[in-house]
């Protein structure tokens, strides 16, 4: 401990010399009060230590590993016969985060920190004084400053009479809560340092859950908070996240569609600019205002509920038929006349509607990226979520706006001829294919089994096969001009299209099709899988073991596991293995991609199969549970009735995260063994993650 403390002090001195080149005072100002104004001799009273911490600074708490590195807050009392220290120091609702430099979790306070220490009064005029040691650090500069103050408590009135209780005190000269699990005290905020909370129907422990909800709402996530040293850094991170979101399967294919909308329109560049501004405004308003009203469950509703997904399916399907030439989408003549009278107001409304549609349909893939922003908004944060969502949406809107402003970037053919209609028809085929993705999400979430993997692939094979024949000129739509010869670009596109069709055909009988992992329904929905191997594969689960919901869900690659959190923990305890928690979803694109590209790796599969008890928890499943299993969440005070709602609530409350995929390695009590992992397509990294969890479990 002394060595780690010495390192901490050296770092603090180094930063103070480099940044300010002068002595700095700790950025905390203390007040000392009693929990009640008077007591009887022999009774107990709480000493309340209150630290007011400067803006952009924080003070470390007293209830985490003292050997980790940072200085814990401690209070050293001068011993005398007028009082006795009872129990341990109790910090009141500190926050928690993972600090990379120390390699572990720390607990801290921002703005205001409160510590309580119970004492027993032994004399009429107690003398209560001593000194404190603590450490304050800056979110902005990284500077850390140790503090050392003297304290004295005055003003307590000791009245005549005997104490009503006989307390057995623990007397000590120094009080610092380093073993938070060793004693349970009467305050509502006493919480193990792990902040791990199990949600059960009728759970009476509301205080610990309220603390976890407060921690979650105060921080973007346990990982992000350590990286974002300022609002500028946070805005930059959000902007980069917006650029990454453009590369997701639900967003990237939509970019070319904007070109056909703005091409040959009156005031097209102005409308394109309004289009980009609308994206930013809608994302900022929807992502902050609506999330404050509905919490992170709203994003989950948009991406998983059957109503919005079938609506998105219908929109894409209708647009696809329109581009193929079946009909033209026009506003009613009466409405058009009114819009003409209002100086093209209707045209701008159409631009806004298109931007609004983009924002809604993109939630299927961008929801996990902005999920932490939504949690922060729901928990009371105002400035940070607004800045984050504005930065995210600005990056998200730039390509759409630029392509809409300069559609010539995507067209090099002469203006004359029928190539414009060809572009529309190609977009029509693509929209029909993409429409199936939204129908598939609803189909998986509600277990309709109308669009299993082979049916989905059959539609895509036919659609892209017809697209290939269209590019060769073998098929003509109503508005196409006669094609006397096929140009080289069209021939090359047709080759690529038919190659894609040939690639998909083996998938009808079980080929994994890794390139389409994010688009296709799970492999387990195949009715006939020639690639399925059962002989020679050892089962993950002992014969005869009951697995709840095994008839609804399946793991990929012939892995076997659980689909209920409590069942998995109980079985893991029985076989003495750690638990691999897969927070996933039917509509989670990146989850399917991880399964197809990472879980398929032999090294990863071996570790999952041999070293862990696997539990897959679907956060978007709509299967309603018996009423006896319902409970009201301590996080958002909403009744959780479905499998998905309860799994999502567990992820938020216990593991302070609401994004998928999210992988946690835990012990038999559900406590984290190592830092969780999210989307990472490097199998070696994932195997190392599994090895680290196994090693931590053995050590523990």
TrEMBL record:
GO terms for biological process: cell redox homeostasis; cytochrome complex assembly. The chain crosses the membrane at residues 231-252, 272-290, 310-331, 351-374, 386-406, 418-442, 454-472, 492-511. The keyword Membrane applies. GO terms for cellular component: membrane. It comes from the Bacteria. GO terms for molecular function: protein-disulfide reductase activity. Residues 1-21 form the signal peptide. It is a multi-pass membrane protein. Residues 167-199 are annotated as: Disordered. It is found in: Membrane. It holds the Pfam family DsbD_N. Keywords: Cytochrome c-type biogenesis, Membrane, Signal, Transmembrane, Transmembrane helix. Residues 234-438 form the Cytochrome C biogenesis protein transmembrane domain. Residues 37-151 form the Thiol:disulfide interchange protein DsbD N-terminal domain. The keyword Signal applies. This is Thioredoxin family protein. It comes from Dyadobacter fanqingshengii.
């Amino acid at each position: 401990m002394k060595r780690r403390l010495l390192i901490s002090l050296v770092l603090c001195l180094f930063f103070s010399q480099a940044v300010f080149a002068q002595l700095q005072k700790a950025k905390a100002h203390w007040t000392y009060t009693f929990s009640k104004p008077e007591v009887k001799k022999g009774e107990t009273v709480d000493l309340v230590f209150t630290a007011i911490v400067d803006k952009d600074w924080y003070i470390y708490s007293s209830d985490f590993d003292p050997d980790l590195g940072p200085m814990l807050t401690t209070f050293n009392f001068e011993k005398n016969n007028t009082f006795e220290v009872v129990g341990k120091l109790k910090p009141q609702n500190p926050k928690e985060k993972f600090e990379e430099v120390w390699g572990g979790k720390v607990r801290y306070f921002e703005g205001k920190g409160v510590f309580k220490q119970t004492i027993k009064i032994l004399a009429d005029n107690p003398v209560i004084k001593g000194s404190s040691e603590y450490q304050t650090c800056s979110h902005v500069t990284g500077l850390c400053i140790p503090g050392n103050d003297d304290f004295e408590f005055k003003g307590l009135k000791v009245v005549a009479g005997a104490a009503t209780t006989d307390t057995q005190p623990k007397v000590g000269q120094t009080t610092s809560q380093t073993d938070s699990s060793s004693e349970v005290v009467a305050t509502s905020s006493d919480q193990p340092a792990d902040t791990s909370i199990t949600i059960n129907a009728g759970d009476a422990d509301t205080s610990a859950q309220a603390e976890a909800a407060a921690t979650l709402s105060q921080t973007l996530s346990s990982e992000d908070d350590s990286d974002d040293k300022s609002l500028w850094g946070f805005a930059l991170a959000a902007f980069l996240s917006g650029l990454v979101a453009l590369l997701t399967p639900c967003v990237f294919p939509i970019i070319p569609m904007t070109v056909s909308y703005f091409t040959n329109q009156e005031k097209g560049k102005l409308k394109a600019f309004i289009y980009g501004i609308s994206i930013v405004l809608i994302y900022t308003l929807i992502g902050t205002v609506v999330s404050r009203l509905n919490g992170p469950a709203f994003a989950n509703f948009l991406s998983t509920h059957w109503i919005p997904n079938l609506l998105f399916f219908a929109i894409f399907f209708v647009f696809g038929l329109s581009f193929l030439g079946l009909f033209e989408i026009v506003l009613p003549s009466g409405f058009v006349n009114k819009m003409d009278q209002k100086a093209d107001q209707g045209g701008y409304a159409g631009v806004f509607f298109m931007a609004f549609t983009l924002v809604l349909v993109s939630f299927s893939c961008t929801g996990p990226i902005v999920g932490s922003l939504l949690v922060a908004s729901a928990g009371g944060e105002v400035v940070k979520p607004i800045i984050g969502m504005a930065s995210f949406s600005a990056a998200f809107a730039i390509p759409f706006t630029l392509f809409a402003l300069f559609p010539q970037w995507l067209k090099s053919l002469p203006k004359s001829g029928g190539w414009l209609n060809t572009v529309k028809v190609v977009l029509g085929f693509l929209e029909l294919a993409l429409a199936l993705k939204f129908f598939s999400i609803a189909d998986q979430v509600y277990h309709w089994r109308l669009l299993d993997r082979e049916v989905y692939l059959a539609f895509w094979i036919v659609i892209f096969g017809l697209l290939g024949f269209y590019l060769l000129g073998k098929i003509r739509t109503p508005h196409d001009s006669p094609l006397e010869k096929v140009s080289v670009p069209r021939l090359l596109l047709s080759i690529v299209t038919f190659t894609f069709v040939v690639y998909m055909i083996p998938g009808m009988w079980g080929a994994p099709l890794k390139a389409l992992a994010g688009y296709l329904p799970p492999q387990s929905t195949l009715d006939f899988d020639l690639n399925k191997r059962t002989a020679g594969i050892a089962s993950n689960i002992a014969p005869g073991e009951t697995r709840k919901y095994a008839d609804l869900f399946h793991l990929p690659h012939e892995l076997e596991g659980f689909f209920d959190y409590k069942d998995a923990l109980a079985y893991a305890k029985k076989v003495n293995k750690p638990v691999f928690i897969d927070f996933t979803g039917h509509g989670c694109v990146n989850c399917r991609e991880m399964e197809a590209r990472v879980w398929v790796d032999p090294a990863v599969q071996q570790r999952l199969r041999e070293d862990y008890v696997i539990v897959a928890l679907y956060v978007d499943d709509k299967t309603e549970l018996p009423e006896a299993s319902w409970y009201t969440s301590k996080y958002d005070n909403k009744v959780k009735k479905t499998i998905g709602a309860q799994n999502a609530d567990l992820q938020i409350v216990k593991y302070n995260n609401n994004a998928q995929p999210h992988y946690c390695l835990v012990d038999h009590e559900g406590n984290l063994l190592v830092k969780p992992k999210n989307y990472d397509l490097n199998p070696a990294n994932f195997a190392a993650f599994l090895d680290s969890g196994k090693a931590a479990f053995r050590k523990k």
